[in-house]
Specification:
It contains six helices and ten strands, in the order H-E-H-E-E-E-E-E-E-E-H-H-H-H-E-E. Helix 1 packs across helix 6 and helix 5 packs across helix 6. It has about 270 residues and is of the alpha+beta class. The longest helix has 20 residues. It binds a DNA duplex (16 and 16 nucleotides) through helix 5.
DNA sequence: CGCCAGGCCTGCACGC
DNA sequence: TGCGTGCAGGCCTGGC
């Protein structure tokens, strides 16, 4: 479930159910995530009231007053609300039981996700401190993208996925935004003009906003649960559309490998 | 069996 | 020396 639109969709879905609620108990069934889940986490959470549910990049931030639960969904993580008290399944590693009996449950088969605790300002956490501008904020625009890419020879697709350049853009939405801006994914980031950076920053913003409006994308391992089903996968311009016609010009979408990740683009719309 | 998958970190060799 | 870069590999499970 993991790029910014999916995380934001999750955040928006959980926020009204969570904020103001007390956490009755928390259960950790498997500590072996990308980093070990802190041993004392259930004790920290027990009795805490969730004051706010925020997001920075792909990280969800549960403000508990005395500290923050930092949660990342990795590649295969999903966070949803269980209302019927259903028994946890194989990869359900973490539960928060609220004072009204609902359960917020994390399922993450690959365990690339994170469940951490941080006392104080979460933005000072080592994993968050150096993250670049939020793409939907005014901090991110053509000038910011231009400044962040000067002198860099890396492919722009790669740069977009670099969280230090801009937060929250992953493999799907990098390809999508580049198509929207008519920029070839292999273009050296530092060669982009001011105008191209402006177009690309705008395209990143539009792509993410449209995807959020669609509730994010639902791929392969998605399990429908709580009205959190996303639909943006039906609107992909290029992602996973190799060989299919470009929605804009009709030329065949191509697939290449960049840094061991798949990139998709239209060779007619997106010039090198 | 091998390959692939929405993330992200580390280590290495290399060039400037 | 120190960076940026482009790789490879690792962390895991599951689907094809």
């Amino acid at each position: 479930m993991p790029e910014l639109p999916e995380v934001e969709t999750t955040r928006r879905g959980l926020e009204p159910l969570l904020v103001g609620r007390r956490i009755r108990t928390a259960v950790v069934r498997n500590r072996a995530m990308r980093q070990p889940v802190p041993r004392g986490l259930p004790q920290r959470l027990q009795g805490a009231t969730v004051r706010a549910l925020g997001r920075r990049g792909k990280y969800l931030l549960f403000d508990c007053g005395t500290g923050t639960l930092i949660l990342h969904l990795g590649m295969s993580g999903r966070l949803w609300v269980v209302r019927d008290g259903a028994a946890p399944a194989k990869h359900d590693h973490f539960d928060m039981v609220l004072d009204d009996g609902t359960i917020v449950r994390l399922r993450d088969p690959r365990r690339f996700g994170l469940v951490l605790w941080h006392a104080g300002d979460p933005l000072t956490h080592v994993l968050l401190a150096k993250i670049g501008p939020e793409p939907l904020s005014t901090d991110f625009d053509g000038a910011a993208l231009h400044a962040a890419t000067r002198g860099r020879s890396v492919a722009i697709k790669h740069a977009l996925m670099d969280s230090h350049v801009v937060a929250g853009v992953g493999n799907i939405y990098a390809s999508e935004a580049l198509h929207r801006a008519a920029i070839h994914p292999g273009t050296a980031a530092g060669k982009l003009s001011h105008a191209s950076c402006e177009a690309l920053a705008q395209a990143v913003r539009e792509t993410l906003e449209i995807a959020i409006r669609a509730g994010g994308s639902s791929l392969r391992d998605y399990v429908s649960s709580d009205g959190l089903a996303g639909n943006y996968q039906n609107e992909f311009l290029v992602y996973d559309r190799a060989g299919l016609p470009c929605r804009r010009c009709g030329a065949k979408i191509r697939e290449i490998r960049q840094g061991q990740r798949s990139s998709f683009y239209c060779s007619r719309c997106q010039k090198a």
